[in-house]
Amino acid sequence: MDDDGVSTGGGSRSLKTAATVLRALRLLGDHPAGLCAAELAERLGKSASTARYMINTLCEAGYAERDRSGRVRLTEAPPWGRWGASPSPVPGDPDPGAVLAEATTELYRRTRQRSYLVRRTGTLVATVTDSRGHQGLAKLPGLGTHVPPHHAHALAMTKVLLATSPAYREAIAAEQLTDLTYATITDQAELGAELERVCRDGIALDREEYAEGLATIAAPVVSPSGAATVALGLSCSARRLATDHDELVDAVHEVARWASEQWAGEGTPPAALGGRPDGSVAAEDVADDEDRLVSGPRR
After folding, report:
1. Region at 78 (left for phi over 0; alpha for psi -120 to 50; beta for the rest)
2. 165: nearest Cα among 199, 215, 205, 129
3. Region class of 146: left (phi > 0), else alpha (psi between -120 and 50), else beta
4. 56, 81, 204, 240: least surrounded by Cβ within 10 Å?
5. pLDDT tens-digit readout, 233-292
6. What is the rounded CA–CA span in Å between residue 104 and residue 263?
């Protein structure tokens, strides 16, 4: 047995790290008042530094929260919504199954740029539910599994959600537009004009507005009911956007449109986008995948 496996009885095996994380979640669930890092470390039989790293990861991913005293407790719901809620991003719409995950993979396969799926879940915090990119590919600094409302105006994925949701847009309008870089839009009227362009063109851009030297492109994935609570996008260097603007924009737009059609049970077969006829992606196309955020049950 290798170092990553641990016997779970009956001849089955599990990953040690995953088993430890699940034990930590169970412990936090058993202590609604919260645990500090030292207490969690003692109960897990791990070092205090390991417990701190685990706590940081759980908090960044939205599974736990830390109060001012340093004690940690589970959040009321996992990042994708309430436990037992419909896996569909839009209540009443059919479950998209693996369509959204396939779209994120396809966008990365086509562009070899880090690709993202961002959802509006009924709160002021947008959730990054999928991310694809190989090791060494630049990440957007400070972007975890959530986009806070005071950053929503600077990122293409959340610009899409702002443009397509009057309620989300109205809520963000109450926020001060944070100046993240020299290029960040900080004027509400200018942001309004930008969002009107997004509605008109069906594509959003961020040219070094979120992070200097980096750019993002995104388009809406429209559900069968016509709601657009999902944004598909990518990040790249500002230089790459300048040189390959049309190619990258076309890729984002086409894959987002394909995902919308597939969600509705129609549209072009994935093979036309470069995948296999059965909708799968060749192993060599995703072998260098570095990370993926799990957003709940998929079929």
Report:
1. beta
2. 199
3. beta
4. 56
5. 999 999 999 999 999 999 999 999 999 999 988 755 444 444 443 444 443 344 344 444
6. 14
Q: How far is CA 137 from CA 1, 7, 190, 219, in A?
A: 32, 35, 32, 21
* Dihedral class, residue 120 (left if φ above 0, else alpha if ψ from -120 to 50, else beta): beta
Contacts of 64 (CB under 8 A, 6+ apart): 28, 55, 58, 72, 73, 74, 75
Q: CA distances (Å), 143 to each of 118, 131, 165, 182, 235, in order?
A: 12, 11, 22, 18, 11
Distance from C-alpha of 128 to C-alpha of 143, rounded to nearest angstrom: 9
Distance CA 280, CA 274 (A): 10
* Each residue's pLDDT tens digit, 35-70: 999 999 999 999 988 898 888 888 877 788 888 888
Phi, psi (5° rounding) for residue 205?
-130, 150
- Look at strands 146-147 and 230-237 and give their pairing: unpaired
Distance, in Å, from the CA atom of 106 to the CA atom of 110, rounded to the nearest integer, reads 6
- When computed from its CA atoms, the radius of gyration of the chain, rounded to whole angstroms, is 20
Q: Running DSSP on this structure, what letter comes out for residue 133? A: -
